[in-house]
Amino acid sequence: MTTIGRPREFDRDAALKAAMLVFWRKGFLATSMNDLCDAMGIRSPSLYAAFGSKEDLYRAAMENYVETIVPLVWGPLADGPTARAGVEGFLLAAVKLLPECGAVPGGCMATLAALGEDMPGTIPDIVRSGRVQCLEMLRTRLNGAVATGELPASTGVERWSRFYLGVYQGMAVQARDGATSADLKGIAETAMDAWPGQGR
Questions:
Q1: Looking at the keywords, is Signal present (predicted)?
Q2: Residue 163 class from Cβ within 10 Å (0-12 exposed, 13-18 middle, 19+ buried)?
Q3: SS3 at position 180
Q4: What percent of the residues of the chain are helix, what percent strand, and what percent coil, each to the nearest 5?
Q5: Considering Cα of 77, then 182, then 26, then 39, what sign does the dihedral take?
Q6: Pairwise pLDDT comparison (158 vs 46), residue with the higher score
Q7: Phi, psi angles (nearest 5°) of residue 136
Q8: DSSP letter, residue 101
Q9: How many other CB atoms are found less than 10 A from the CB of residue 177?
Q10: What sign does the dihedral 50-52-54-55 (CA atoms) show?
Q11: CA distance 70 to 197
């Protein structure tokens, strides 16, 4: 006789998305297990059975953020026909996606995470790794622009990569503090006015 297993009482993907939004809005330390259970619509035994510890759930939520949200902002960086168009595209995507919209918190979960928080275990390394990957994406695109002649060989790729990452990170912080899309667009346009090789 075949034994049919008990079906799950919740949608794991939907629960993980709900947890991501709570962590994104409140941070790791300020988020309680009650906050998570309420948002996910499950009880703590089900949460622990499905995701393990709070730290494990945060790690899964951050991975979900990287898989689902990050490409919406950073995808245009690689897709632009030129490096300049790519950088402008990712900043303009940030203009649209960083402000708070309904249930979606303002800012960037990866940028705002672990700043000033005493995070347990490997979480600080995971968050830091995500930010380093963003920096590497900018380096790759700008190095490619130097290789193709779009940018002068004298371009300080490291400096400019960190500059544009810093612009994005600043936009994320300001969005969390209530900056509008119009406010952020002004920042993006000013950053593009500084594009290297324009004789400024």
A1: no
A2: middle
A3: coil
A4: 65, 0, 30
A5: negative
A6: 158
A7: -65, -35
A8: B
A9: 10
A10: negative
A11: 28
Residue pair 175/107 in contact by the 8 Å Cβ criterion: yes
Nearest Cα to Cα of residue 57 among 120, 142, 99? 120
d(CA 73, CA 153): 28
- List the structure tokens of 58: 């945060």
CA 119/CA 23 separation, integer angstroms: 13
pTM to 2 decimals? 0.86
Is there a contact between 107 and 22 (Cβ–Cβ < 8 Å)?
no
Tokens 């991501």 label which residue?
A: 20
Tell me what the pLDDT averaged over the chain comes to.
Answer: 88
What number is the average pLDDT over the span 130-147?
94
pLDDT of residue 5: 45
Lookup: tokens for 145: 């622009």
